[in-house]
Amino acid sequence: MKDALFGGVNAAVLTAMKPDLSPDPERMAAHAKWLLAHGCNGLGVLGTTGEANSFGLQERKAILEGLIARGVPAAAMMPGTGTANLTDTVDLTLHARAQGCRGVLLLPPFYYKNPSDDGLFAYFAEVINRVGGGIALYLYNFPQQSAVPFSLPLIERLLKAFPGAIKGVKDSSGDYANMKAMVDAFAAEGFEVYSGSDEYLQRILAEGGAGCITAASNGNSHWGGIVYARRTGPEADAAQAVLTATRRAATSVPLIPGLREIIARSTGDDGWRTIRPPHLKLTPAQAEAVWAAWGAAGALPLPGLAPARAAA
């Protein structure tokens, strides 16, 4: 897809934390800059992998402002601003717009389960009207986590009712047929479909999708960049194989602490293991297993990071 605002590889960025569990913008900004220098076209900050829903409203604003103050381009970031309520969602979206972000990622209102498409349409209509434009809105389809999927009829209804407001979707359903159906139905109108799984990057690009927004890009973005640049051929195929293998390695243990472990070992920075409850650090056995899995995938050492040191 040409002219996609976030076309390419977007990491669902980990949120660094200090020992007291407060956000650590210095460490996070350094990681974000490394990602942009090693295969990422953009950054999905404050999403699921970034533990956004473990942070309060003011903390989320401070994290975004802290990254920008430390030189991470606002235009490269797609912050997650969807919450379980209307007013906070609008507030965070307006804040992102004021900081210079070009787009935001919106979870559905996820606390009440099994809402009707009419109810979801009414919610997003209210969000769109209150935001009033000036920033692209992307839907976040992650039914395993939110328990509230986006149906194709709902997306079609929103696109027709609010031309230009809903720019695309991150589909983390893991259902490639669903992603392809979105591309087939809406890509011709400029609707950007991003895979939430690395294993589908090469396929979704070939089908007319815009790219990916993925957790494992915290460590495998170098190979994602190759796939996006080359698309086809032996080099792209080999890079896609690394993406698929690292995705499977990342999900072989609890995802977020597992990725923190990979970055901690790759940088020698134990601070990356700090995580907010209810998430927990990996057990020693899990830590060894995920490190071995990333090594078997051919992804270690991570390009551009200091040689791995022994884990603490």
TrEMBL record:
Q: A Pfam family name for this chain? A: DHDPS
Instruction: Work out whether the entry's keyword set contains Lyase.
Output: yes
The record, for InterPro entries, names: Aldolase_TIM (IPR013785), DapA-like (IPR002220)
- Provide the top EC class: lyase
Task: Provide the alphabetized UniProt keywords.
Answer: Lyase
Instruction: List the Gene Ontology MF annotations in alphabetical order.
Output: 4-hydroxy-tetrahydrodipicolinate synthase activity; 5-dehydro-4-deoxyglucarate dehydratase activity; N-acetylneuraminate lyase activity
Q: What is its EC number?
A: 4.1.3.3, 4.2.1.41, 4.3.3.7
Q: Does the keyword Protein biosynthesis apply?
A: no
Q: Which domain of life is it from?
A: Bacteria
Spell out the family assignment given in the record's similarity comment: Belongs to the DapA family.
Which protein, by its recorded name, is this? Dihydrodipicolinate synthase family protein
| Organism from which the protein derives | Paracraurococcus lichenis
